[in-house]
Structures are given as C-alpha cells and as structure tokens.
Design goal:
Number of helices of chain A: 15
Catalytic activity (chains A, B, C): K(+)(in) = K(+)(out)
Protein name (chains A, B, C): Trimeric intracellular cation channel type A
Order of helices and strands of chain A: HHHHHHHHHHHHHHH
Oligomer: homotrimer
GO molecular function (chains A, B, C): identical protein binding; potassium channel activity
Main location (chains A, B, C): nucleus
Structural class of chain A: mainly alpha
Membrane topology (chains A, B, C): Multi-pass membrane protein
Helix content of chain A: 55-70%
Strand content of chain A: under 5%
Chain lengths: 292, 292, 292
C-alpha cells in the first residue's frame, strides 16, 4: 500500500475511473458474455438466427435494458449506439458461425479467457457505479432505488435469465438467479450497496478509489474462480454468519462448510453444488472434444 | 340513514376521505399482505432472504409498481419513500424471523387479524380512488384507462401472481387471477368502474361519499369472509344473472347455486371450490400445529 | 407497369398512403384478429369473459402496446381511443357470444374472410411504416431501434404469444414466435428493414410508393396463403440460400425443399410443418362441423 501511495494512488484511481470503456473493455465484455450464451442449452443459433441474435443482445446489453425498464425510460434506448450493437453482433457471428469454430477456440483458450474475464469485471464495476449515480440523479434520497439500479446494472441478463431462456425454448421455473445467486450477482448486490453508501457520504473514500478497489477485488476473484472452474464465493463465510445471526439459518450451510478454508483464504474451493456455469463448462468440454 | 344525516354525513365522509394512511393503515396493509405471503407454498425465506424480501415488497407495493408500469412511469418510483419500505421490511422480518414466531402468532390471532383486514380494505379503497384520479389526470377522456389503473391499484400483486410465484420457484401456468378472480380482485374491478363513473359525473354522489360507502362495503364483507374462512363472494347471484343474460352462461354456476342464500343475504356461504387463500388457510393451520 | 404510369401511380400511391384506416380497415383487422383468437385452444370466453376480453384486446392492440413498451411510453396509451376499443369489444362480443354463432359463420365464410384478410394486411403495412417513422422521430440515427419498433408494430400479439396464452391458462414454453416465425412475422421484419432503409434514404422510392407496393405484396400473399390453407412462405428459397451462405445451414431445409417451386413461383405450396394457424384451421373445421 505504501508503494501505491508513492505512485500517487489518488491520481491513478482518478485516471482509471475516467478511462473510456469502448471499444477494448466493451469488446471483452461482449466476448465473455456471448461465450456463456454458447455454453447454454438449446441449439437455436442455426435453427433461428434471429432468436439467437436477440439472446446475444440480451447477454450484452441486458443490464442497460433492465436499468432503463426500472427507471421508466425506453428499454431499447441503448440500441441507438449503432457501433456497440454492430460490435456485439460481430462477436455473436464469430462465436457461433466462424469457420472451423476458430474464433471460439481462441477466446475460450484459458489464458485468453482469463484476460477477457478480468476486463469484463472492469466494465461490470463501472456499470454498477454508473447505475447508482444515474439513480441518485433521478432520486436524490432514493437509497433503495440506487441499490436496485446498481444491482441490475451489475447483474444484467442473469436477473432475467428465466425470460431469456424462454426465447430459446428452455423453461426452468424451479430456479432463478434470486433463489440461487451466483458470485457475480451477489457481488453486484454488495457493490451496489457500497456505491450507494459512498453516494450517501457514509463511506470515507472517494468514488474513484472505490471503483479502483472494487474492480481489483472483482477481477482477481473472478479470474481465480474461472481458473479453478469453481463456483464457490468468497462471501460464504461472512454470509453464513450474517444469515445465522439475522435469519437463524443453520450455521455453515451443510457440506459446503468442510470446503471453506479458515479466515485468511478469501476464495472458497470448488463447491459441490453444480450451478449453471458449471454445467456450461462441462458442455464446453464436451463440445471442444467433439470439435477436435 | 336519517341518523347519519343528523351527524352531518358529508363532513364525516370528507374528513374520512382525507385522512392520512401512513403509518397506521399502511402498517395493517403490510401485515395482512405479508401474512398471505407466509401462507404461500415455497419456503424461500430462509433459503433466499433476498427473493423473499422482494416477494414481500411486491405484496406490499405491487399495486404501485403495476400502476406505474401501466402509466409508463418508473416502476420503482414508490421505493423513494424510504420510511414505507423500511416499515414493510420490518414487518417482513418480524413475520418470517421473529423468535418463537411470536409476531406471526399475534397478528394471525383471529380478532387482531379481523381488525387488520378491515384496515387493509380502507387502504385498498383509497388506492382505487387514487388510481382512477391519477389516470383521469393523465387521460381526461380515457375512461377505459381509468378503470384499468383503478383495477390494478386495487388488486395489486394478485394480477402478477404468476410472476411473483416464479420468484419463489413456483410455477402454475394453468391458472391466474383473471381466470379465477378472488373477491378482492372482483371488488376492485367493480370499484374502479364505480369511481370512473363518479369521475365522469355519471354517479350522483360526491367522491368522498363514494369512498366512505365503498370502504364500508369492502371492510364489512372482507371481515365476514375472513371470520368464516370463506371464499364466496357477495356478487355471485348478480354475476350469475348478468353472465346468463350477456354471455349465455348456464344460470347459477352449478353446485354453488345451492349455497347461495336468497336476495337479502349479501354474503355467500363457503364455496366448495378451494381457492389460493383457502389452501393458504389450510397451510396456516398445519403450520400453527407444527409450531405448537 | 406502363398502364399504372399512365394512371399517375405517384398520386394514387400518395392518396392510398394517406387514406384513413378507421373504421373500415380497422374493423377488418379486429375481425380477423379475434377470429384467430377463437381458433386458439383454451375455452375461456364463457369461463372468464374478463380474461377473454383482455386477450381480444391484446390481439387487436398488441402492436400498439408492444411499441409503447419498447419506446418507454404508457402501454395503455392506445386505450384512450374509446371508439376503437368499443368497436373491437363489439367484434369480440359478436364473434364469441352472437346467437347461433351467426356472426362467426359470416366472417369465417371463405370469400368474406379473404377480403377481410386483405384489408388486415393494409393496416399491418401502415402500422410498420408508422412504427418506423415514430422511432425515427425519437432516435434520428437509431436504425436498429427503427427496425425493432417497425417489427413489433407489424407482428403485434404474435411476439407476446407466450404471455397472451398464459392469460388463458395455456403454457407452451418450448416454442415461441421467434423460434418458429410465421409468414406475417417474417414479412413484418423484412418490411421494417425496408421502411428503415427508405427512412435512411437508401431505397430509391418514396414512402408512399413503398407502402403501396408492400401492401400489394402482403395482401396478395396472405390471401393466396389463406385460400390454400397454406403456411408456407414465399421467402423460403431466398432464406435458405442466405442462411446457407451466412450461417452454414444445410441448404433447402430438408423435406420442404421438394415442395418449393423454381424461382418464378413466389408462393411455396403447403408446408408439411403444422404451425399454430394450421391447427387453428383444423380446429375451426371441427368446430364448424359441430355447429352444423
């Protein structure tokens, strides 16, 4: 931390938090998002390119669509940025229809994927901060609205996954992202709370510093989780205690407890519960094998 | 009626229709609404407090959310009233997580519940009147819009129950509130029509009198229905005739006919058809037994 | 074409494209739309007239509702036109509850139906053009938004059929209009693209001429398809080639290929795939037989 202090952390954070996201970071966001779409069941790309393209757009721009819906603006507002849509459409085309599956193999190659995943988290953090700021602009004391808008901006398509799946003819009513929150969704919620506290001047840090720190946390955690094919969450220990205190939940959450390392290790090892992305990874491997 | 005239009914109605709803009446509304949520299947409160909290908010503020959606404003607009949200959240916490289930046992105790149910109907009537008035403000001659907005303000979460259930992982596509209207939903529709007629100056009563009379009708009926664990409806007789005349439906609706008392009795005895709330009551009883 | 030139095509197109749609064309639109609703499974008209009426309104005004949602305005905005709603409600009442099913028999009589279908396509084309124009007004360079809004204005209730069915207690998650596009939905998409290109001055025709030509194409095709009880599409040949080039789909789409006539014939004969409307026709026939 002293080294960072010498390097003038404040200026660095300021510069970082003002950096443009288009096209490099946004491109990484589109690639990783549509990669996850490819892992999903329902082979609609060839059967109905229109449905597949719409799903891809929801994966890339779902957070804007949801935030616009929640704030009562035009849901297709973001589609006025033709260059963003064209870039995302190009990524969709390359991932699904590139000859020899070449593009997919490149971006799904682990070292490349880890870089892209890290870049995606940079965009996610900025979206949360922008969402909270936007809501603050519309409702000066609407703290709950700020959390909600920051949350949907961070979680994006995950929060409407039931309806996104429906587009592909898949219907799984027994679960949804709110019943079984994945790490990015949970982190978006906590991030939205943090940014709202900052906007309310209840956190003793500047917004740019918070963006910097939260980006670092998100990128590191997501890269480690992706590298380990894990779907654990660094929050398990804290959550288990808070839920025990507040809601009287049984401490530790059963089997998962055995895997949770003691306090200093921030990342929980592979959870035994297979989640959506887990299955996606499995599918990916099978698909890769078929392709080889 | 003469006695009421002596008591200066007009002034009384005026005062009553201007009375503030927060916090007493709103509190009753939140308690009764979240009580019905607790009766619903899907034990999500402990599994996912976030999903449960969101459901509770939909139960308490669904009418505002729906009316905002229908009128094209921001659906989370009402969440700017932090004190209302905090009060509803406190009720949610107490009903689901209070030690020894104490709060639940208190408010579900029949005499207390009857008072709360009566207070809830006061809020419902005011919401219908406010919805119609709001729509009248936006569309001066949009009589149908007025009825729609008043209707959704009165019915609230019931009209989006399919999607609210989905949040809890429950999916019952074969039915919905429009196919099997419960008494409050029906009454909201008729109330919305009455208030729209009043707004169009087609009813020879002032709005405050109409609010007063409709509140009296709703509170009395709902209290009697709750006390008798009944899901009948005082409209069955009239509806059966109107449907017969307009739509050629078979008169009387089969078995229900036997239970319907002749004209003067306004409340139909227990209907043989088990509805959502019926099941809820059953579940409640089983739950109480388990808790004891 | 020379004859049309002599007849002053430009003026004719101008007059045609400015012609009022209410009440004749709109009436035809309502009749044909509610006719398709009657073919749908789920006998709710007698069980719940309210749900049935709402479905009928979605069939008639779904395109306005969807376009309003997509552009962030009030979804019930169109319901301010009381005369349109009353006319559509009258059609709904006559089709579902007319004594002896007389009205239904008249409008479902093939020659009458063909005229109504042609008139409906006139309205559809105008809606697409109006949708694109409206979106152009809101987003001057939002070409994608224009296509989206034109598309939903043309397709109407088809795009929300999953949710419209849910109102009637029917749930078919395995399919939707985007996975299996019917001819009108596809044509609306292509029409929306054409009108957007025209709005962007990339098509060397005036808007009124485009409206005229597209109406002619739609009306002719839909009348032929209806007369032949067919659900093929004149686009199959082109689509099959484009999909082969762009998405590497197998050429021709299997069995359908045998039925496709060589280039000059614009209408593909009866497709072996039974679609929604196909089933509707079947149901209609059975119903007519029962009625006789």
């Amino acid at each position: 931390m002293e080294v960072l202090g010498v390097l003038n952390l404040g200026d660095l954070a300021q510069t970082f938090s003002k950096m443009g996201m288009f096209p490099v970071f946004d491109l990484a966001y589109y690639i990783v998002s549509i990669l996850y779409l490819k892992y999903e069941p329902g082979e609609v790309a060839r059967r109905s390119p229109v449905a597949s393209w719409i799903c891809a757009m929801l994966y890339c721009f779902g957070s804007y669509i949801l935030a616009d819906i929640f704030l009562g603006s035009c849901p297709v507002d973001y589609f006025q940025y033709n260059s963003h849509i064209l870039l995302a459409s190009a990524v969709w085309y390359l991932i699904f229809f590139c000859p020899l599956n070449l593009f997919y193999k490149c971006v799904a190659f682990m070292p490349v994927k880890l870089v892209l995943v890290a870049l995606k988290e940079v965009v996610r953090t900025r979206k949360i901060a922008a969402g909270v700021h936007h809501a603050h602009h519309a409702y000066h004391h609407g703290w709950i609205i700020m959390v909600i808008v920051g949350y949907v901006k961070g979680s994006g398509v995950a929060l409407m996954s039931n309806f996104e799946q429906l587009l592909r003819g898949v219907w799984r009513p027994e679960t949804n992202e709110l019943l079984n929150m994945s790490f990015p969704t949970k982190a978006s919620l906590y991030g939205a709370i943090l940014f709202t506290l900052q906007e309310a001047h209840l956190l003793p840090v500047s917004k740019s510093t918070l963006i910097c720190l939260f980006t670092l946390f998100m990128a590191t955690t997501k890269v480690i989780l992706t590298a380990r094919h894990s779907h654990g969450s660094p929050f398990i220990l804290i959550e288990s205690w808070v839920c025990h205190l507040l809601f009287g939940s049984p401490l530790g959450g059963g089997e998962e407890e055995h895997h949770v390392a003691p306090a200093p290790a921030p990342i929980a090892p592979i959870s035994p519960v297979k989640t959506k992305e887990d299955l996606g990874e499995g599918t990916r491997k099978r698909k890769s094998k078929k392709a080889e």
